[in-house]
Fold this protein.
Amino acid sequence: MTKAKVLVTGGTGYIGAHTVVELESAGYEAVIVDNFSNSSRDVLEGIAKITGKDPLFIEADCADYNSFAKVFELYPDICAAIHFAAYKAVGESVEKPLDYYRNNLDSLLNLIDFMGKKEHASIVFSSSCTVYGQPEKKHLPVSEEAPLQPATSPYGNTKQICEEILRDCTISYNGKLNVIALRYFNPIGAHPSALIGELPRGVPQNLLPFITQTAAGLRERLSVFGNDYNTPDGSCIRDYIYVCDLAKAHVSALDRMMEEKPEIAGSIEYFNLGTGVGISVLQMLELFKKATGIAVPYRIVDRRPGDVEQVWADPSRANSVLGWRADTPIEEVLASAWRWEKKIRGI
Ligand code: UD1
């Protein structure tokens, strides 16, 4: 039986690569499109080693209509798409808003254009909990019913605008387009094989890569951005979700759309992907020590502008509707991140 071909834009990126692995193991055939703007060709090798087969891959820029068109000429039988390809650095987006709007919006518009030419199209969109901003206390843990807040960065705004574009298109495509927007909380960790993982360029902006690089001796110490927040230990709280659990949610979302249930025809659905547990920055350092035996040096510094104080997910809709749960123990997740850091540093 021929396998259903699923386009994965940004498929050599951090979440994309882990999702390709899960798609292949679930019996889908991934067609990866990437321009390596924030990833490396070696990732394809890592995927091949894990899955035992070279993934289908086309080097193309999704924001460039003609370059992206090649993909649909080569693989006219693509039946669904998972759209990861986007810029994602919050700080950089404040400095270069046009780059962010151009890249993140054009790639989505092109994707909808191509997929919309099909008899029926399913798109899984890579969204973020950033759409909720800082939810009011009464909305924590945050469910999909919580009000969205004005975005605090161009990056965050692109996620909100993309969700709106997709919603409008599900209406105008008259039942031909199905969308699931997955709102990720904080993805961390690496594949258990340590063959793929997160590859931040330059100084990591995100917490866990900074912790593992400090543990590996690349950085002197972690700066904890603030310990005077209104949280039990004063540091910020997030919902850290294992990237392999997150990847599996994409397969569940795809399965749901492939069933072509009449009740979701032409709809857009939103799901929060988190564990349901909030962890503070200082707790993370303790957990990392428990998982690896390494006490990462740190100092408390000023708050980071734009940081939300605390946010964690109510993932019950994803649990019940998608039949998915993020259940990998945090120690295991942190150990996987450390294994990956050691592997890439040759420690
Ligand atoms: C941020 C964005 C999120 C985006 C994600 C992409 C916000 C509010 N959230 O997530 O929308 O999808 O980046 O990468 O902008 N921390 C330190 N020291 C460090 C690094 C981080 O103390 O060196 C703290 C932060 O203050 C925060 C926590 O660790 O409390 C997590 O930070 P980070 O990994 O950057 O993720 P978010 O800010 O939650």
Notes: Residues 5-188+240-274 form a domain with the Rossmann fold fold (CATH 3.40.50.720). The mean pLDDT is 96.
